[in-house]
Amino acid sequence: MANIYYEADVDRSQISGRKVAILGYGSQGHAHALNLKESGIDVRVGLRDGSSSAAKATEAGLAVSSIAEAAADADVIMMLMPDTEMGAIYTEHVEPNLSDGDALFFAHGFNIRFDLIKPPAGVDVCMVAPKGPGHLVRRTYVEGGGVPCLIAVENDATGNAKALALAYADAVGGARAGVIETTFTEETETDLFGEQAVLCGGTSALVQAGFETLIEAGYQPEIAYFECLHELKLIVDLMYEEGIAGMRYSVSDTAEYGDLTRGPRVINDAVKAEMRQILSEVQSGKFAEEWVAESRSGRPNFHALEQAGHDHPIEKVGQELRAMMPWISQGKASVRETSGGQG
Q: What is the pLDDT along the chain (343 residues), one digit of tens a residue?
């Protein structure tokens, strides 16, 4: 079973006397920086020259400087840039400003797991990964709650790395909900697999395939949209709140019987075999190599696939139907505003 820690298990003094640099002010960056600041931590934000996020961070009352200056000034450095950009930024701006006893933090293990960043031996290397998007990390903190966090220690140069990671997680609100101990390898591999096979890749492909099946059988696109995409939120919310068994209890007997008897025909042994292959590609580093190479070449395949997704008929139908339901987006920021890396 996992080790889970709460506020009573944390020594906040481990971070209260440290200087923290948040490198990046995107979805996670703004949440970490503001939560740390309001927890009484000495924090500054490091951004690239000309970053559009500089004004936002300054307006929020945060000290803003270049990445190199922030890294040099701090002794705890949290890397919150996009995975594919992080290695180059680290080499140019962070590595020259590291000293023995400093701590290098990450919110995702990608660059450490796949050796894209190789910190010096005298530096603590830790992970604090809130299990939610930045706007949720920020909102729950303001409300007095928190989002569960993962912590991991890759290198304990000082002998204090775990205590420091726990204190950081507490300062961003994670210990209010629970902090789970893991490793860089476990977090990275399970995160990539989950995104690809279930949360993003698996779910979006399943929704599109179901929509296409109904359309090809002659049903109206609007009806297909509601049945295969719109109502998915209702089911996911039930699973989120009560688990799969709770969801099945809440739906009709007809829906539950269809779930129990037909679900395994859709997600069958062939699908699980493909999932195992996807996991193998993550574990071997094949996916990481492919993604880094794709980014370095200008992302031609990525952009082509992205455009094909935008052009799928389900998007046009969905846009028209969502315009009839303004309450869906009421009071919410756009996806583009609440996502992204360094900014």
A: 889 999 999 999 999 999 999 999 999 999 999 999 999 999 999 999 999 999 999 999 999 999 999 999 999 999 999 999 999 999 999 999 999 999 999 999 999 999 999 999 999 999 999 999 999 999 999 999 999 999 999 999 999 999 999 999 999 999 999 999 999 999 999 999 999 999 999 999 999 999 999 999 999 999 999 999 999 999 999 999 999 999 999 999 999 999 999 999 999 999 999 999 999 999 999 999 999 999 999 999 999 999 999 999 999 999 999 999 988 877 565 444 433 444 4
- Give CA separation, 57 vs 75, 158, 253, in Å: 20, 31, 51
Contact 37, 94 (CB under 8 A): no
- DSSP for residue 64: E
Answer for the pair 187, 145: CB distance below 8 angstroms, yes or no: no
pTM for the structure as a whole: 0.91
- CA nearest 211: which of 198, 223, 203? 223
What is the C-alpha to C-alpha distance for residues 129 and 107, in angstroms, rounded to an integer? 4
Residue tagged active-site, from 30, 32, 93, 108? 108
Note the residue count of the chain: 343
How does DSSP assign 280-311, residue by residue? HHHHHTHHHHHHHHHHHTT-HHHHHHHHHHHT
> Is residue 108 among the annotated active site residues?
yes
Question: Residue 293 and residue 84: Cα distance in Å, rounded?
Answer: 9
Beta bridge partners of 149: 130, 179
3-state secondary structure (DSSP) of residue 62: coil
Give how far the C-alpha of residue 46 lies from the chain's centroid of Cα atoms, to the nearest Å: 20
Spatial separation of the C-alpha atoms in residues 98 and 39, rounded to whole Å:
25
DSSP E strands in 200-257: the ranges are none
Residue 127 CB partners (closer than 8 Å, separation 6+): 105, 106, 107, 108, 109, 112, 150, 151, 152, 153, 154, 165, 182, 184, 187
- DSSP one-letter code for 94: I
